[in-house]
Amino acid sequence: MSIKLFELLLKASIYTITISLASILIGFVIAMIISGALLSQQRLLKLPAQIFISFFRGVPLLVQLLLIYNLLPAIGINVPSIVAALVGLSLSTAAYQAENLRGGFASVPRGLIESAEMVGLTPGQIFRRIKAPIALRLTFPALVNEAILILKASSLVSVVGIVELTRMAQDLAGSTFLPLEIFAAAGLIYLVINIVVAQAGGLIEKSLPGVPR
Amino acid sequence: MTFDINVILQQMPAILSGAAVTIVIWIVSTIAGVILGFLVATGRRYGGFASDKGLGAIVDVLRGTPFLIQIFLLYYGGPFIGLSLDPVPAGLLGLTVYGAAYFSEIFRSGFDAIPVGHIEAAECVGLSRSQIVRRILLPEMTMLVLPPTFNMAILLIKETAILSIITVPELTLTVSAIGSQQYAFVESLFLLALFYWGLVEIASWLGHLAEQKLSRFRFNNA
Lengths: 213, 222
What we know:
The complex is a heterodimer of chains A (213) and B (222).
Chain A: H1 3-38, H2 43-58, H3 61-74, H4 81-106, H5 110-118, H6 123-153, H7 165-176, H8 179-207
Chain B: H1 6-9, H2 12-46, H3 49-64, H4 67-77, H5 87-113, H6 116-124, H7 129-159, H8 171-182, H9 185-214
């Protein structure tokens, strides 16, 4: 396999990283809202959130992507396929991240919230100053894990025609007749990206302050 | 948008056969994956340094790369090293190996969670290594690893959909083929999503049931 081919794969991996990063961030925002609904006492908020999570965790991502890709034009929303891919990946990761955040918020030590109430912080302040930072700290390892899962899952957006790393590898394997080398190289690139993310996540986690009991 | 599910339902025999392929592939590769995963975990624990590191590296590669890339490498790259497989055997092999990597990690943490005292006691009374694995580690570990094993098995249901890309005639391929013949993509994909959703919910319910039934075997970790 020539250097030229490897360069093409590396360039395509920039799309993989961009798409994954964007989905993680969009998914995080959606997940914050959904975890809020999950922890709410109101059945009318809680039930839709539970159904959302159950659906997006119960249906294969490939089927979700195909569904969104075909559904959007069918209901009159004509968007480029990159939007369908981002919507699919973001909603899917939102379901997983919401479940993590719910766990994080539920594990904020009760005593900290009570003392915040005692010193007269408003519910909004308690959320911003106490609950959110601690829950985010607690769920940080899960977020890194989710980032790795999404980097791998982003290979599926190749089926809706996005030329990221997997699709580029497929195209090159077809045109050069070197599938063994090209898919192995693509796998290696994914592996390196994931190792970097895992190592960086570990380093960041070490530098974060611990959680008071 | 017209939404006519009848178009799809007329094709029921084909859909059922696709569903059967999905379920059979899932069950076979899960069972094979659990067995292979157990062998890998045992090999890493008792095979010495080289075997631990070698198997560990393979497990890390399998867990660090997308399943789609692995299956492409096997199906399109395999023939170049004399491994020409039809879609179904390639899918079965790929899913089994992929699952085994994750199952082996579950078993590895299961082994680690067993109190050292139990193993030392078994060594003291003169049990051989294979007896320790069969009589001590395996039964004690079963309860510990059951929940994560069920979780992983459920994740594998969803991975079977990816096999449609290498033309394994499972449910996703069958239903989307019907969808494009009838020009009813949205209906067919909805049906497909519902099927997987139902299957995953049923499987997790069965998993919880099994855990409850078996919980009386849980050993006291104290």
